[in-house]
Write a structure and sequence with these properties.
The protein has 14 helices and twelve strands. The chain folds into two domains: 182 residues, no CATH class; 256 residues, 4-Layer Sandwich (Purple Acid Phosphatase, chain A, domain 2), CATH 3.60.21.10. With 445 residues, the protein is α/β, with parallel strands linked by helices. It starts with a helix and ends with a strand. The protein binds fe (ii) ion. The site of fe (ii) ion has 9 residues, from loops.
Amino acid sequence: MPSLVHALARLRTLVRGRDVAVVALLYVLLVALGTWEGYAFTTTLPEAVSMPRQRLHNLLDGLLLHGRIAAKLVRERVYHVGDLGFPLVMHAVGWGVHACVLVFFLACRRGLVAWWTRRALGSEAAPQPEHVAAGAATVAMAQSTQTLAPLPRVVSRRRMLLDAGAGLTTLAGAGLAYDAFVYEPFAVRVARYTIAIKGLPKQLEGVRMVQLTDTHVGRRVPAVYVRQVAERAIGLRPDVVLLTGDYVHSGEGHVQASIASFAPVLGAKVPVVAVLGNHDFYGADKALRREFARYGVPLLENGRLFLDAATRTLLEVPAGPALCIAGLSDYTEDRIIPAKALAGVDEAMPRIVLCHNPDAAEDATLLATGLRIDLMLSGHTHGGQVRLPLLGTPIVPSKFGSKYAAGLVAGPAFPVLVCRGIGMSIIPVRWNVPPEILELTLVGA
Ligand SMILES: [Fe+2]
């Protein structure tokens, strides 16, 4: 403990008043601008949020996540700060922490430069004794008063190396933040899979399905982005579009904007089916049922439809060879009833099952039914949103670790295809896990 106190006292001597004044001025400016931006964003209708605006907002939210947590704690436990108070607390705390880190860094830099200077003077320039003993403050003063001989070249070279290192680190950090919070979250790609299904009717050979999932329209994801994704999805000319949940982040406030953002798909006369995800049950399920009904999109809550092989249209009762498309409700926020979804379906008929949460593939009740399922299509895990070199995906919302993070996974009884999804949850970040539209081609086995 005494050494820590000594280190802090030593650090205190290295803090320059001018540095603190500049950082404080910067801090006040950033808090003012950030609070204004946060307030303006909160009071803007979700449909009116542009992509540049959303990118800026997500960048600030990502960089000031600690401030956001502090503002939430204040709102929930101390005082209900409103639309203006929340961003104020968030930016005050967030930038405050960053300002302290910056002052600390500047002090460390001064200390390091002084240490190097003492070493260089001692070993290479045969300095006067008082220079060595006096430490950093005296050395800096000596430079400014010019009463001493110029510092040896090696000192300025080391100082330059130190500053260059710090500059490069800052640039790398800024590049990383730009990629993770601004660019990659909206750099959607198409992931293509071809899956063989036993007993697939000949007329459905090569049938193409597009899955869109986890759009999470809300504070992190603007409706305008989902509309762009829907335009790209319909440009793939799918035979069927599958929507697998988490259309909004929470509440019914963004439901209309979210479903309306699928307009390019809904207006294309392509069969569309949907299931709900866990976030849809956070106060939005009733509104979503209403909206899907308004657009004529069948919502499969432990139900099924049949993709007719001859016409490639969806039927409630098969009229000939067909593919059964069943949908389960959400695994954690509602109840999956596979026996109801597939009740009475001919055992010889191939079937795919939509279920938001891939963990359902390991559900003991589902497995106990022994029902034939050829493929499950899921979302929910978002690929973990962040995949680190060597460490993999640190956070995956699944009971099975990263098994169901993304891609084609062998479940205990059938394969599960997990889409990384379109939007983001909780933290507005994606790194090394870009959002994706999943395109699935079925072929006969
Ligand atoms: Fe999700």
